[in-house]
């Protein structure tokens, strides 16, 4: 059994927004080809599993699926809603830092239950309409509508404390490297070199952004990937250890147990 990768957007496009397909019921676990997917459902019932967490569909519901995350649906009644597929290139072409910050904030909420649907549905329909015949001058319109949409989501689902994460460009680049790399390397020095900075500065960047060291942040990604491989492939623990760049399986087992208080084999069977 191997992890299936799906690509739902044409190579020439960097963003796609459309109605959620009403015929979707059960899907096999899969991940996406290096893009973010945001799914909003205002009708339907069932569940949605992202990596190793299963969420009930209690409409209206928003799901945020990050690049490389595994997910699958178990929908029991006809769904209605919208889906946004967004490539890295869309954000690279944007000069609106507030939009990038809002997407960063949303990535911390894999599932949120919203308060109302009228305004959200209106914004989604405007986005669909504006993307039908997209031309360059519409980029500003699309970005403005996305900002309104994401701000609405965050306003409805998080306490209004005034505290938001302010991600630096370097932190966003590190996050993107971890999400898109074929192999995650358990080394702060490795990523510091790629970002043309020092390990000390990379630690400071991570602590400023999310309050943890660069080593811990990288470790979280390694454990996430290990859990995906344990759950969604038939690879042995030794094979997973090799793929994750551990020197041997015993080192990987000790590392995994220290982070999760379970051995890889116990996690797989639980």
TrEMBL record:
PROSITE patterns (alphabetical): HTH_ARAC_FAMILY_2 (PS01124)
Protein name, as recorded: Helix-turn-helix domain-containing protein
Pfam family, one: AraC_binding
GO MF term (any one): sequence-specific DNA binding
Residue intervals of the HTH araC/xylS-type domain: 172-270
UniProt keywords, alphabetically: DNA-binding, Transcription, Transcription regulation
């Amino acid at each position: 059994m191997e992890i299936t990768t799906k690509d739902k957007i044409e190579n020439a496009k960097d963003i796609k927004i459309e109605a959620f397909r009403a015929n979707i019921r059960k899907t096999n676990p899969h991940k996406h080809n290096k893009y973010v997917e945001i799914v909003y459902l205002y009708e339907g019932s069932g569940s949605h599993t992202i990596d190793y967490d299963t969420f009930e569909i209690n409409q209206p519901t928003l799901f945020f699926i990050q690049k490389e995350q595994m997910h699958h649906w178990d929908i029991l009644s006809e769904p209605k809603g919208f889906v946004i597929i967004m490539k890295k290139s869309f954000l690279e072409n944007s000069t609106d830092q507030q939009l990038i910050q809002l997407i960063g904030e949303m990535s911390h909420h894999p599932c949120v239950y919203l308060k109302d649907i009228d305004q959200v549905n209106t914004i989604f329909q405007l986005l669909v309409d504006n993307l039908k015949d997209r031309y360059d001058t519409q980029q500003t319109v699309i970005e403005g509508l996305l900002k309104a949409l994401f701000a609405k989501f965050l306003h409805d689902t998080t306490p209004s404390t005034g505290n938001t994460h302010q991600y630096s460009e370097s932190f966003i680049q590190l996050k993107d490297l971890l999400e898109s790399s074929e192999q995650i390397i358990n080394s702060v020095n490795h990523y510091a070199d790629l970002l043309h900075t020092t390990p000390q500065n990379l630690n400071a960047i991570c602590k400023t952004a999310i309050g943890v060291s660069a080593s811990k942040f990288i470790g979280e990604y390694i454990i996430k990937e290990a859990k995906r491989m344990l759950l969604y492939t038939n690879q042995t623990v030794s094979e997973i250890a090799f793929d994750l760049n551990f020197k041997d399986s015993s080192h990987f087992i000790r590392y995994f147990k220290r982070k999760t208080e379970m051995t890889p084999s116990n996690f797989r069977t639980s």
